[in-house]
Each structure stands twice: as C-alpha cells, then as structure tokens.
C-alpha cells in the first residue's frame, strides 16, 4: 500500500492531463500564490506567518504539483 502519496512526477502528470481550461485555472492559482510569496519575502516581518519563522521553514516557490498535493 502507498504511504507517501503521489510523487512529484505523478502530480505534474495529473496537471498535464487536465483539459486546457482547468490546467490554466491551476496555473493561475499557482501564479497568485507565488506573487504573494514574492511580496512576503520582500516584507517578511509583516507578511510571513510567524510559524514559518519560529520553525525555520523557508518560503519557496509554489508549483502546480504542490496544488495537486493539497
């Protein structure tokens, strides 16, 4: 039985298998999340959630595969 979920490659393949309209919706959401991450990195004291700093979790770009994982 699978205990780790899907691999990155499997998640990317799921996005590519979407029809063009839904794939663009995924990519639009990804672009929006990444825009916020850029803003947060430019002003971390106000925009980065406290938990990230407290736990030492770096913000990183969001991908379509990340959205599938959610």
Report what the structure shows.
This protein is mainly alpha-helical. 70% of the residues lie in helices and 0% in strands. The longest helix has 23 residues. The model has no long low-confidence stretch (mean pLDDT 91).
What topology does this entry show?
Layout: H1 8-17, H2 20-42, H3 44-47, H4 50-55, H5 64-69
Question: Based on DSSP secondary structure assignment, what is the total number of beta strands?
Answer: 0
Number of H/I helices? 5
- The rounded distance between the terminal residues' Cα atoms is 20 Å
Structural class: mainly alpha
Which regions contain 5 or more consecutive residues with pLDDT less than 50? none
Characteristic terms for this protein:
mainly alpha, 5 helices, flat, single chain, 70 residues, 70% helix
Short note summarizing the structure:
The chain has 70 residues and is mostly helical. 70% of the residues lie in helices and 0% in strands. The chain has helices spanning 8-17, 20-42, 44-47, 50-55, 64-69.
């Amino acid at each position: 039985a699978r205990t780790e979920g899907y691999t990155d490659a499997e998640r990317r393949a799921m996005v590519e298998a979407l029809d063009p309209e839904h794939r663009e919706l995924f990519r639009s959401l990804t672009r929006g999340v990444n825009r916020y991450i850029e803003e947060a990195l430019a002003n971390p004291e106000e925009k980065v959630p406290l938990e990230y700093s407290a736990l030492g979790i770096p913000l990183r770009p969001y991908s379509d595969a990340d959205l599938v994982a959610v």
